[in-house]
Design brief:
Number of strands: 0
Radius of gyration: 24 Å
Distance between the termini: 13 Å
Length: about 325
Amino acid sequence: MLYFALRRFLSALFVMFAISVLVFLIFFATPGVDPAARIAGRNADPATLAQVRHSFGLDRPMPVRYLLMMQHLLIDRDLESFVNRGSRVVPQIVQAMPVTLSLVVGAAVIWMTVGIVMGTAAAALLGTLADPLIMLVGVVGVSLPAYWLGEVVNLVTQNRLHDTVFSWVPPPGYVELGHDPGQWALRMLFPWLTLALLYAGIYARLLRGEVVTALGEDYVRTARAKGLSERRILVRHALRCSLIPIVSLFGLDFGALVGGAALLTEVVFGLPGVGKLTFDALQNLDLPVIMGTVLYAAFFVVLANALVDILYARLDPRARHA
């Protein structure tokens, strides 16, 4: 098991290296892309462009430029933004991380709870009218885009019904947990619900199928023959075994969201997280910030994949030799 975990993490390091090279080549080696022109401005003369290229090391060979970029980003941590001079990339990402973590962790608690309850209830009520109704709710949740739902939530809570029903809802934004826990929770409530609605439907549908399949297995029939109650069979046997793929999917989704996949939710609700930072950098074509956030996102996705593989190998020894 230790050998498998070590091999998997070495593979993850290689993937991260490949991603860093690919991202660097896309942003700095694509024909027609001139970072110096972006830094110097539109009307910069050739002498100014040459000076900028020399100052930022853009006139050096490509491998040297890559190594310098990685040194400034990962080792020295002093890589600066091309747009906001003097603003370093790594501190910006570190400052945005608690916001993204607050959003993703809160939403994950909601969607896992709701998804497990809905999926288990639908499987237990298989063949009744409640089953398709529960799944219909899940389909509706999956079908609603996060950016559209967020705009509707803001329209209702901040405009149309703010003076009556939602007068208790504060304006969009972020308050640090340590500064005011109550305001932190209030401002994060609707972003949590908006992000969780999409994933709750996905998890409910997946769990329902897994539980229905588990209820037809031999060990469940054996449990019934022993006289165990249907409730205990559902919770202690069928549900417990059905959670393995759910946990694996959760690891991948959580890693992607922490890495910035909750961009639309952060933008709509004005949360200064990693997704919002990436969005602003893309609008300004701020290449160092874009590269930093992309590598940050790739790190969490690759780490989540590695942890899921190790978890699978722990649960099923056959996966260690795959």
